[in-house]
């Protein structure tokens, strides 16, 4: 009871007025990272479409889709997404000094984990909606891939 009132007053006066601006600042790098995940998925599926349009090879298409499934675990391809979130390091350092925010690396790591999870969900959903083995008409495959990609991105 003796701590509640001073703690509430401290939060109301020293933290609450800054929460909106802090969240806005945090969301910049986070949103940028998630947009990079979206762009990477889009780019990789577009490459699958282009490759299939050139080769019209269903076996190669299956290999490319299988390779797409490994995308969330491909650190080289995912690196640009993760780098966008690393900008939080600089901003959170300022918060650490002003508000005694600790565990900055944990915040960045969790955000990067969520990005990887999002990519895992995207490629899994893509695989579930598009199965090359069920495609009888190869003329419609590229169109189907595009429709599935747009559905996943939605």
UniProtKB/TrEMBL annotation:
By its UniProt entry, which Pfam families does this protein fall under?
A: Niban2
Task: Give the Niban 1/2/3 domain ranges.
Answer: 9-154
Write out the similarity annotation.
Answer: Belongs to the Niban family.
Please state what the protein is called.
Answer: NIBAN protein
Q: Which organism is it from?
A: Tychaedon coryphoeus
């Amino acid at each position: 009871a003796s701590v509640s009132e001073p703690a509430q007053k401290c939060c109301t006066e020293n933290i609450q007025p800054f929460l909106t601006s802090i969240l806005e600042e945090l969301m910049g790098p986070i949103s940028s990272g998630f947009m990079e995940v979206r762009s990477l998925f889009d780019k990789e599926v577009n490459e699958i479409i282009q490759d299939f349009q050139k080769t019209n090879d269903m076996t190669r298409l299956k290999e490319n889709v299988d390779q797409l499934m490994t995308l969330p675990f491909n650190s080289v391809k995912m690196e640009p997404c993760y780098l966008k979130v690393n900008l939080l390091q600089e901003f959170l350092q300022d918060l650490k000094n002003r508000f005694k925010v600790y565990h900055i690396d944990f915040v960045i790591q969790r955000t990067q984990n969520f990005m990887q999870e999002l990519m895992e969900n995207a490629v899994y959903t893509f695989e579930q909606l598009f199965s090359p083995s069920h495609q009888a008409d190869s003329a419609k495959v590229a169109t189907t891939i595009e429709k599935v990609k747009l559905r996943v991105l939605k």
